[in-house]
Amino acid sequence: MTRCLIAHNCTVLMACRNPYEANGAIKNFCDSQQLLHFYKTNLASLNSVKNTSDELLKLDRKIDIVLLNAGVFGLPWTLTEDGLETTFQVNYLSQYYLLLNIEKMLAPDARVVFVSSESHRNIKWSLDNVLAPTVDLLSLPKDQYTSIRAYNVSKLCSILAMHYLGYRWLNTNKQVFCAHPGSFVKTKLCRNWWVYEFLYTAMKPFSKSIAQAASTPLYCAISSEVKGLSAVYFKDCQRYEESDLAQDFQLAFRVQDLTYELLRYRAASKAEILSECEEQNKGPVGEALVSS
Ligand SMILES: NC(=O)c1ccc[n+]([C@@H]2O[C@H](COP(=O)([O-])OP(=O)(O)OC[C@H]3O[C@@H](n4cnc5c(N)ncnc54)[C@H](OP(=O)(O)O)[C@@H]3O)[C@@H](O)[C@H]2O)c1
Q1: DSSP per residue, the chain
Q2: Mean pLDDT of all residues in 253-267
Q3: 115 C-alpha vs ligand 1 centroid, how far in Å?
Q4: Domains observed in the chain
């Protein structure tokens, strides 16, 4: 995705945790380092996300595209320094927090793309849970944890967040999408357990290449064909209907309340989040932010 955006003369701001990989991308993807900037960000730490947001906010620029792409899968149960289950925080909460923090930098017609997954369909909640979701439903405690469940919950949360933002930005030109990149794409996602590594390797001849997998998120981010659309889920560069649960508008609001509750007690910039996220600033256009 970064390579494509660079090829189209975007300035890309990469929020990632690994300086070695980031510098490799800078060397490989562009001649001029002016186009690609790296912000060291560990999504397992809200404090680190806050530091990145503060650095970004110092730029006198507008952001046209936000790609929320980072993800983990197959981890054993661990808590982050913020006391939340790691997959939930890395795949959803921290990236959403980053977006809220930099919302005032978004261009009036900015596009935000959550990289989600078809596996969100595997989450089935009881009516009680849908009517009154709890923190434990999102940030799974150890006795309810499986890595697949945590992953699927995080991807469901992304789609619900998309619907919430789509509603909040209804009277603006901002657009928000979710994109499924492909299934069993052989990336580093499967690195945490040899069984997944084996499965993804076995599926490689039948699944998308990494470049192909980048196409749907990029389509959402830059295609003129999606102008005027928002809060839509895409797969194979086509509109797809997400699961019934992911379409539940009231659930989207309830999960949003929980998200704010989690951030309110943990995030250093809580006051800013709650008071400033609706603000719109004006300025020059031309940047993309990729969390990867
Ligand atoms: N591969 C698939 O079949 C598939 C299917 C559906 C959806 N997806 C989604 O596609 C997205 C991209 O995944 P991928 O397949 O390209 O996997 P990947 O190669 O493992 O990329 C995930 C990226 O997330 C970063 N990341 C993980 N934990 C982080 C943290 N704590 N702080 C900052 N960055 C962190 C990783 O950074 P490091 O390099 O530092 O670890 C890596 O660059 C994910 O959202 C994934 O859920 C993938």
Answers
A1: -HHHHHHTT-EEEEEES-HHHHHHHHHHH-S-GGGEEEEE--TT-HHHHHHHHHHHHTS---EEEEEE-----SPPS-B-TTSSBHHHIIIIIHHHHHHHHTGGGEEEEEEEEEE--GGGGG----HHHHHS--HHHHS--GGG--HHHHHHHHHHHHHHHHHHHHHHTTTSS-EEEEEE--SS--SGGGGG-HHHHHHHHHHGGGS--HHHHHHHHHHHHH-GGGTT--SEEEETTEEE---TTTT-HHHHHHHHHHHHHHHHHH-TTHHHHHHHTT--------EEEEE-
A2: 92
A3: 9
A4: 2-291 (3.40.50.720)
